[in-house]
Structure formats: C-alpha cells, structure tokens
Amino acid sequence: MKSTGIVRKVDELGRVVIPIELRRTLGIAQKDALEIYVDEDKIILKKYMPNMTCSITGDVSDENLRLIDGKLILSPDGAQQLINEIQDKLNK
To answer: Does domain 1-48 have CATH number 2.10.260.10?
Structure first.
C-alpha cells in the first residue's frame, strides 16, 4: 500500500473528505458510489462497479464478455478497443 501523506479528520457525522487530487487520479466523480471493505484494521474504499461493467467503456450489459475467471469484463466495443491497442503496441 502506498502512502499519500494526506491526513483528514472524521467530522461529527462520521464523514471524511477525499481530496480532489485523489478523486481525479482515481476517476471518482461527485455522486459516484464507493464500496467499503474492511481488511483487519484497514478501511478500503473502491469505486463501485456493478457486475458486468466493461472495464474499458463502462458499459453495463449481461451481454458483456467475462474473461480471466471474471477478473476482466469487456463489452464488444471495449474488446475491440483493447485488441486495437494491443495490435498497435505489438506493431511498434
């Protein structure tokens, strides 16, 4: 785990502000849902992605492809974008 050096206090309602720099870096926008995990004494926040959400386009569909034992979900468009990018990298 990488430390950012950023410290925030919990307010009286139990809220913590996530700095804009981190939200931009992680692609978290206003009103985005976050999943909350607990790992021993750590609280982990992760941007919520519903099941069958394409990792590239963000499209949600039961028709999306589930690859690598469900670790990678791709829409047809996302799969094509990935194929094109891989081919571009290999052709350089």
So the answer is: yes
